[in-house]
Design goal:
Helix content: 25-40%
Radius of gyration: 28 Å
Number of strands: 19
Number of helices: 17
Strand content: 15-25%
Distance between the termini: 85 Å
Largest sheet: 12 strands, mixed
């Protein structure tokens, strides 16, 4: 153990020289009353001296494969102010009694020990770290540790705008904000709480205070948010963001399913279809991210490839849980309690020996995604805040008719990005429109849902649908043969490999005749199952994304936009559904639009069938189709 002893001796000598030398080194003591020598300047000079005079890295924090662990993540709490369906098991999480959690003094004691041994970056996590009352004081205490260069936090963003000015003043210099969707209704569905605009306000506040880049963590899961990849990337055009797409990882209780994981390469292919010029950025040492940038954009995007391409060989991270256990691998189930040894009166040397033994047992790499999914490990909420998506989320919670939740969706990448950028640049928090509106000339309360982000200013979303007849733009050539049948009459998928890539847009509609009783309950949002319009809208959007899995011979299409509008027609006691899909590709998206409208209609039937069996689904039809080789179609 000679190396650790030498390391500690050198560090002590350096610290001693910094505190007492008077030969012009950075530690020279200021003269009393000298205004030019502030405590902050003194601390800065000490840190500069340590950077210029590095000492041997601690053997206690170096594993048997030579990896030096200079990055420590500390969980401040197991509690969270959201109830994410993807972070906690369905049955909930038993929280550790407060007496068994690390105290502030114990957190700072351990942090001081790790920094003394060579840790230069600490990230505070949770649960949600910003709900801890003394989080600002903890950051300020950490900022005083010599040798610590970076203090970061990973947060859900709910309290960020309120606390960030204090945290920045205390010494916080890195921020990760978790956000899985840009659709407010989907956000509320996922986290079981309101707060989308608070998160957006927190991101804006971080940009306003000069944090660059502001890291946005987005866990990508098939069938939930993989259709939003392009919209997230578009935000980096005008904003200094590092949007980090994270592969869905298995943890205890989150019902991990390989089919739900969207791999790094699949995500990258989707981005390159839209931006072929996407360029790779140099990787930093020990980085977990593969970073890319669209030339000319202010920000960039990254991929955390824990499952498909692990980065175990350069891992430099250790974790301390809120109850004081040291985890040397996020995916490992081996832990050692530092809390118990601290409270038993262990000396610094004894603690270092325990830490060194744990680090020394760290394996070369994790067991792989399939083995990890079978291992017993903590739920993610008990390790740190990290967005894990559940395989089969429970039904959307009921939303009171008193709520003014606006349902926004995604429009074309560029215009949506510009809208968000404009809102943030103007120091505004986007406000969602009310669900309930009175139509002109109507004496009854009317409700509609529109997934168009400009629904609060779009007259079509605030009044009955205009049903003026449309027209064809020229004759529509047809084929005298079925394209999905080969010469012998067998089913076959059409080869679209030779077709040109164009922008394809399709609009389809459906009508659900509810009858007066069910219509009134939907109108007033009084169904026991919950808000039928919200559930139908989400179902329609998800159906569009998985059309190729439902219709056997449909090609998989990477949709760039899905818009679903549901409006109430009081004259017929009906819900009128209109679905619009857009994509860049060699094949049309009419099947996606039709599937979206049909599944939204079926969902309304399911939500209302307990009230009435006299529900009729009708008029499922294609309204328009553009971008194909055979010309555009508009129904008359």
């Amino acid at each position: 153990m000679a190396a650790p002893v030498v390391s500690r001796m050198v560090r002590r000598v350096l610290r001693s020289s910094i505190r007492s030398c008077n030969s012009g080194a950075p530690g020279t003591q200021p003269r009393p009353g000298d205004p030019s020598q502030s405590a902050a300047e003194e601390l800065s000079r000490r840190r500069q001296f340590l950077r210029e005079h590095p000492v041997p890295f601690s053997a206690f924090l170096t594993d048997s494969f030579g990896r030096q662990h200079s990055y420590l993540r500390i969980s401040l709490t197991e509690k969270c102010n959201l109830r994410c369906q993807y972070c906690m098991p369905e049955e909930g999480v038993p929280l550790t009694p407060k007496v068994d959690l690390l105290t502030t003094e114990e957190i700072l004691m351990l942090a001081r020990l790790f920094v003394k041994e060579g840790v230069d970056k600490i990230r505070l996590t949770g649960g949600e770290p910003l709900i801890r009352p003394d989080v600002v004081d903890i950051v300020a205490q950490l900022h005083r540790l010599e040798g610590l260069r970076t203090i970061g936090v990973t947060t859900n963003g709910i309290n960020l705008a309120r606390l960030l000015p204090q945290l920045q003043k205390a010494g916080l210099n890195a921020i990760n904000i978790s956000l899985d969707t840009l659709v407010p209704a989907k956000f509320e569905f996922i986290v079981r709480r309101k707060g989308f605009h608070k998160v957006m306000e927190g991101i804006h506040k971080a940009i306003e205070l000069g944090y660059s880049p502001v890291k946005v963590n987005c866990v990508v899961m098939r069938g939930l948010n993989e259709d939003e990849l392009l919209d997230f990337v578009a935000l980096t055009e005008g904003l200094p963001l590092d949007v980090r797409f994270i592969e869905y990882m298995p943890f205890d209780g989150n019902k991990w399913n390989f089919k739900k994981m969207v791999s790094y390469k699949e995500m990258l292919d989707t981005l390159r279809q839209r931006w072929p010029e996407l360029e790779k950025l140099p990787e930093e040492e020990s980085s977990t991210a593969k970073s890319f940038k669209v030339p000319g954009f202010r920000g960039h995007v990254s991929f955390i490839t824990s499952m498909s391409e692990h980065f175990c060989g350069t891992c430099n991270r250790l974790r301390i849980t809120a109850d004081g256990n040291l985890k040397v691998c996020l995916f490992g189930n081996a832990e050692v309690s530092l809390r118990d040894h601290l409270r038993a009166g262990a000396s610094e040397e004894e603690l270092l020996s325990i830490i060194g033994a744990a680090v020394g047992r760290k394996k070369r790499q994790h067991a792989g995604m399939f083995s990890i999914s079978q291992m017993k490990n903590r739920p993610m909420i008990l390790i740190e805040l990290f967005l894990m998506l559940q395989d089969s989320p429970p039904a959307i919670p009921s939303i009171s008719s008193k709520d003014s939740l606006g349902v926004q969706g995604l429009r074309h990448r560029g215009s949506f990005s510009n809208q968000v950028a404009t809102l943030w640049a103007g120091y505004q928090v986007p406000q969602t429109p009310p669900l309930a509106q009175r139509w002109p000339g109507s004496g009854s309360l009317q409700r509609h849902y529109c997934s168009h982000p400009d629904s609060d200013s779009n007259p079509k979303c605030l009044s009955p649908v205009s049903r003026a007849p449309a027209s064809r733009s020229g004759p529509l050539p047809t084929s005298d043969q079925l394209t999905h049948v080969d010469t012998e009459g067998r089913a076959a998928m059409v080869d679209v490999g030779g077709k040109p890539t164009t922008e394809r847009v399709a609009v389809a509609s459906a009508v659900v005749l509810l009858g007066p009783v069910a219509f009134k309950l939907v109108q007033e949002n009084q169904l026991k199952k919950g808000d039928a319009l919200v559930v139908a809208q989400l179902a329609g959007i998800q159906a569009a994304k998985v059309t190729s899995q439902l219709i056997p011979l449909c090609h998989h299409v990477a949709l760039s936009h899905v818009q679903l509008r549901l409006e109430l027609d009081s004259t017929r006691h009906a819900v009128v559904i209109q679905a619009s899909c857009r994509a860049q590709g060699p094949t049309g998206v009419e099947m996606e639009a039709l599937t979206s409208a049909a599944v939204a209609a079926l969902t309304l039937y399911d939500m209302c069938k307990a009230v009435s069996r006299d529900i009729v689904l009708e008029e499922i039809k294609l309204i328009s189709k553009t971008g194909g080789q055979r010309g555009d179609f508009h129904r008359t």
